[in-house]
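Action item from last week, closing it out:
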Amino acid sequence: MIGTSASGGSAPRHDPANPLTLVNIPDQPGLLSDIATCLDAAQGFAIATLNLDHAVKMRRDPRFFRAYAAHSHVVADGNPIVWLSRLAGRPDVRLVPGSELIEPLVGLAVAKGVPIGFLGSTEPVLALAAERLEVAHPGLRVAAQVAPPFGFDPEGPEADRMLDTIAASGARICFLALGAPKQEILAARGLARHPGLGFVSIGAGLDFIAGHQTRAPKWVRRLAAEWVWRMLSNPRRLARRYLDCILILPSLTRHAVALRRDQE
């Protein structure tokens, strides 16, 4: 399935107004199977996890959209993306949160005997996350831990040096914990620069593992209300973001219906 649409056939033409077409892997089992194939073939990859906030950002930032379109694997991270995909005629699309990809991908790295690397967050978070993952996954080797300075440019020479450091360490999978759009822009740049290296954008995933941030309880996630829990925990920072996400829903719904009609 590497580099193909999840529904088969030719890849759809991508449009920043309708990012639903970017989702090309329907679920976590399919993603892990594809990544295992990539590792066996010494082929690089870039995994992005689409949510409504990303859909808002890529309409405003052409760089972000271009970076997303350059990813080899895009999954649905957020129930609205899943629901919209099903409305668009994609009933196979399932929820694949980026933070829940770390453990299975680390397990795959151990099974394949390949080292991993971290790029992002802070040095204390990276060190503690590496320690906890190595304890939970005997045989895991975290070959590189790179914490960039605040405000670094993901398209600048410093970013290239960091990518080269990860590649020189022997890591085959690099977890990017930078937040959007920096991590996706850096992933696209890294895959082009080091085509044998895999990149996974995970946002605050390593902070969750290190215990520096707390994710919503499982019962909240089962109710598809994690966004409410997040907003209540930091309303000043997140209220505007979620308002923008709500405001984009009517447009995405129209695009989803149009996609479904095109298939009929």
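Closing note: Residues 4-10 have pLDDT under 50 and may be disordered.
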